[in-house]
Design a protein that fits this description.
single chain, alpha/beta, Aminopeptidase, 8-stranded mixed β-sheet, two-stranded antiparallel ribbon, 8 helices, 10 strands, about 30% helix, Peptidase, zinc
Amino acid sequence: MNPSWPYPVGTPGTPWGAAEKLQWRALQRKQRSYTEEVVSVIDGLRTRFDVATYGELDYGPDGRYPLFAVRSRSWRDELPLMLVTGGVHGYETSGVHGALLFLDQHAADYEGRANLLVTPCISPWAYERIHRWNADAIDPNRSFRADSPAGESAALWRLLEPLRDSVRMHIDLHETTDSDETEFRPALSARDGKPFEPDGIPDGFYLVDDTEAPQPAFQQAVIEAVAKVTHIAPPDAKGQIIGSPVVAHGVIRYPLRQLGLCAGITNARYRTTTEVYPDSPRATPEQCNRAQATAVRAAIDYALAQG
């Protein structure tokens, strides 16, 4: 959709009500299978990891979606806990498959050194529809709080509540896509009754640090590792990436908890959000998945080394 056009749901300048949200939901079509593409891969990991169902989403005629957490089989309470989350936004494919790739190819390297907890696909309804929001037109990644209106966010909150102070490192795997500009930002403006203001899409990988508790050396360690796999996004003419000042090579900062972002859900000393750009002519899907898995490895390695 051309972002200069009116969005096909709602009245410009008027926030959506229940009717508009139902109209929007009716437009969403299942385009891929959570069971075939994600759950089957998780099932294949059961011989090496403990897999638990930490919740289930009931979206009526669209189906029920179990939520899975994968954790180290040799869990020991005295080991540092490393948290990896993916698929908060269902359309951000490498966030899901990068997490699964890390589990399959790299997690064994941390046996006896760290406890790993990975939730590969937090938003399965959105994964199937290649969308940012859940079925209620809520962005889960603005909803990570105790009273969350998003079932996806609430389920993860409950899972992590007893572990919040135990997590040393949390990396949340995301993408920034061309469809952010052509579909999701226009949809957000329409839903909230606000004018759409076009912005650019950065070409390359970048990270989002925490404004309230920045860890610049940690962020740079991840950037340096990922730069060997894919290119790092440069700042725009204003010295910004997606409207935020670039504070270091490939790094911006958000107030994670204030915005209700997933990366702020624990008290981890080291936390970051990855942003891969899958629409770049310089990146392939396999490269994007490897960039995510590399970011996870670099984040864990740094957290282990620094304590």
